[in-house]
Amino acid sequence: MAFQKLEFDTYPESEMLNRSRLFLAQMRTRRTVRDFSDKHVPLEIIENTIRAAGAAPSGANKQPWHFAVVKDPVVKQKIRIAAEKEEKEFYTHRAPDEWLADLNQFGTDWHKPFLETAPYLIVVFKINYDLSGDRKRKNYYVNESVGIASGVLLTALHHAGLATLTHTPSPMGFLGKILNRPENEKAVLLIPVGYPTNDARVPDLKKKSFTEISSTI
Known about the structure:
- By secondary structure, the protein is an alpha+beta fold.
- It is about 40% helix and about 15% strand.
- The protein is built from eight helices and six strands.
- The chain has helices at about 15-25, 45-55, 75-95, 95-105, 115, 140-160, 175-180, 210-215; strands spanning about 65-70, 120-125, 130, 135-140, 165, 185-195.
- The strands form two sheets. A four-stranded antiparallel sheet has the order 1-2-6-5. The chain has a two-stranded antiparallel sheet with strand order 3-4.
- The chain is globular.
């Protein structure tokens, strides 16, 4: 393994504090959106955010992820039909009452029109193992690595000025089939991406306080 000199920008503490405050303010405006416009978004913006996600750390640098970008209306329709089938089963039979009660405050149901309206769907796949010929090569900390990369992706999309939704229809096996992904990949997240409609509404959520989510010892 060859090594190279680290390139790292340092800032005066006053600028660091200001940058941290600005970033905090920006991220506090990120919201999950279900009302998407079909307004065009340049593909390069999406590709750049995925490049940012691909820069995330991963176990042994295995980079066990694949990001499938769906823009074809026909494919998006197939995904919507399959997702709504699973979601209808979830809402009517699979979900326990407690879960449905928690979801009820958001007014969601099995209808997912945003899967066709949003200009892009990004499907995040985790790669459980790499294939080298007939040999399987183990990947490490796959869930953790893909979770970090997905967080970077959502942050990059928001930073670029786009709205997102973290959608997790269960089970998600239909995504691998529709997108013809190999057997070593498993879909873990479906992210509609685009602009919100002018009249988009979101729940008035209350986040936990800083003392509830953090401690300093």
